[in-house]
Q: What sequence folds into this?
């Protein structure tokens, strides 16, 4: 039994890294832009669908992944336009796009499920090629984190961070906050769809339901990652690594509860409950555990 | 420098909450004018500043800065002409970003933001020097998150940000109102120095009549969306709080209705 569990760890690592990459997309909107974007439940499937359709039609897998990325960027653009140009609250804008994507994903695939077996196609990842899969994922993670680390140090990236921090101040400093919000949503969903393309290859199929609850797994990875690395360093690259680690830990736990014999039908509920409690923690902390604060002007330091 | 022509703004028109905030305001500021703005609650002071900043569009009238009509320009675009400091110390800075990053954001106000580094090494030296001039010990805390600073320190940093790149117009919206008296005095002193050194054209709202008299070269008083008093130069220097109260009741036919302004 223990060895079975141990034997499942490489698979859980690979799956955790795929979802960790997806969670980096969630991190960009949820943490940096301070928006909860529910588009991801749809856009991860869009990525998987585009990749599966193209690969099964003989397109090179790299090109297929690039196309998946582009499809994700477009999905983010739709949410961005709904949110900024049409003034719809971000959460609703995401839900609307997600619903649109359900139809679009079905149209892309032409059916609810496309098989993507490694024995028939040239893929980068597969469950049976676990070592190769993990190496590929490590490379993807390294490149992704390096690019994002660079990007968020640039003028454009800094203006995106400022927008998430304080929109009023951003506009006063000449930042077009509508543009930066769209940019963030586009980037985020591009990454999520790319993760979807990786996921479809790894699990060997794309399915219309593969994105259900993705936002919850993404949030779980973000929160677990923060709990793990926030004490070590506040460095941006370290925090992104934390998100990947969060995804992996999530799948270790997932694997473990399955081994313990938990009904797999209950897993989504369990995930949601765990995320709910983690999201509540800072609120509870503030409400019940903070020391009474005697407000006194900062005479001494200003 | 700044020219406001017949500016009018009504909030919630046609409803029971209808409120005429600005009534046909015209105001011209000369280059280097430091104007203090005073008035009771709801007089239209902040509304005037928000109209200039572009928080919303006026119903009619024009706002012209340095010959450019900015009436229809979106808020983020006209920011290149303006430096702004708000009443709430939280509002003018990004709390989770470092002091130097905040300054670098302000430094790029009005410029296209591309893929160049968000802050260069040479800038840090410049910021360190500017922070040292504030005399608040911030020059050694360049990489501290702004959220860790006190309200007064944040306002000082916001002032510094607002004054970078020589804005055409500096807008101060009761920027000391949320601070304790001692800190407020310090921030006002910094304000005076920055405005004088750079000869910034400035509009400063204050609820404190003494401050309004002591600072700047011109004073305007607003009431019910109108400018009812406008004095400058020597006449302004000689003003007392009593004079101001007298001017107010003569122009408006009422007693001055803000306890806050009376007491301070």
A:
């Amino acid at each position: 039994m223990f060895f079975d569990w141990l034997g499942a760890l490489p698979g859980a690592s690979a799956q955790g890294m795929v979802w960790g990459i997806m969670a980096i997309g969630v991190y960009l909107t949820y943490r940096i832009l301070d928006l909860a974007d529910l588009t991801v439940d749809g856009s991860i499937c869009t990525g998987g669908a585009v990749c599966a359709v193209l690969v099964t039609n003989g397109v090179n897998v790299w090109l297929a992944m690039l196309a998946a990325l582009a499809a994700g960027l477009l999905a983010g653009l739709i949410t961005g336009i709904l949110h900024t140009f049409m003034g719809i609250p971000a959460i609703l804008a995401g839900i609307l796009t997600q619903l649109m994507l359900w139809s679009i994903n079905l149209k892309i695939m032409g059916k609810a499920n496309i098989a993507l077996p490694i024995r028939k196609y040239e893929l980068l990842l597969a469950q049976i090629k676990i070592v190769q899969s993990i190496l590929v994922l490590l490379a993807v993670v390294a490149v992704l984190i390096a690019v994002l680390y660079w990007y968020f140090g640039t003028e454009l990236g800094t203006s995106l961070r400022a927008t998430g921090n304080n929109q009023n101040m951003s506009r006063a400093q000449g930042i077009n906050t509508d543009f930066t919000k769209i940019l963030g949503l586009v980037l985020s969903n591009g990454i999520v769809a790319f993760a979807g393309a990786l996921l479809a290859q790894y699990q060997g199929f794309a399915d219309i339901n593969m994105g259900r609850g993705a936002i919850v797994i993404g949030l779980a990875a973000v929160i677990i990652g923060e709990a793990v690395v926030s004490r070590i360093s506040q460095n941006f690259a370290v925090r992104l690594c934390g998100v990947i680690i969060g995804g992996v830990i999530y799948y270790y736990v997932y694997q473990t509860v399955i081994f313990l014999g938990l009904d797999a039908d209950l897993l989504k509920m369990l995930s949601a409950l765990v995320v709910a409690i983690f999201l509540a923690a800072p609120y509870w902390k503030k409400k019940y555990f903070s020391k009474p604060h005697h407000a006194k002007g900062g005479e001494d330091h200003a | 420098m700044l020219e406001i022509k017949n500016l009018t703004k009504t909030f919630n028109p046609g409803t029971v909450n209808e409120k005429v905030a600005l009534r046909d305001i015209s105001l011209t500021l000369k280059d280097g004018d430091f104007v203090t703005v005073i008035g009771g609650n709801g007089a239209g002071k902040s509304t005037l500043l928000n109209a200039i900043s572009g928080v919303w569009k006026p119903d009619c009238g024009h706002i012209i800065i340095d010959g450019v009509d900015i009436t229809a320009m979106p808020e983020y675009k006209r920011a290149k002409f303006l430096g702004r400091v708000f009443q709430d110390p939280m509002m003018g800075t990004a709390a989770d970003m470092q002091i130097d990053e905040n300054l670098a954001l302000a430094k790029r106000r009005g410029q296209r933001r591309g893929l160049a580094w968000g802050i260069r090494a040479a800038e840090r030296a410049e910021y360190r020097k500017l922070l040292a001039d504030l005399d608040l010990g911030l020059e050694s805390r360049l990489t501290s998150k702004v959220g860790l600073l006190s309200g007064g320190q944040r306002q000082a940093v916001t002032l510094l940000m607002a004054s970078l790149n020589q804005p055409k117009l500096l807008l101060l919206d009761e920027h000391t109102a949320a601070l304790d008296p001692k800190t407020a005095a310090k921030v006002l002193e910094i304000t005076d120095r920055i405005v004088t050194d750079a000869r910034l054209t400035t509009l400063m709202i204050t609820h404190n009549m003494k401050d309004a008299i002591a600072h700047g070269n011109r004073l305007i008083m607003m009431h019910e969306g109108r400018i009812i008093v406008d004095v400058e130069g020597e006449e302004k220097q000689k003003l007392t709080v009593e004079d101001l109260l007298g001017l107010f009741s003569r122009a408006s036919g009422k007693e001055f209705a803000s306890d806050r302004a009376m007491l301070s």
Summary: The radius of gyration of chain B is 19 Å. Strands of chain B lie at 2-11, 19-29, 34-39, 60-65, 68-69, 82-85, 169-173, 202-205, 218-223, 226-232. Chain B has a mean pLDDT of 92.
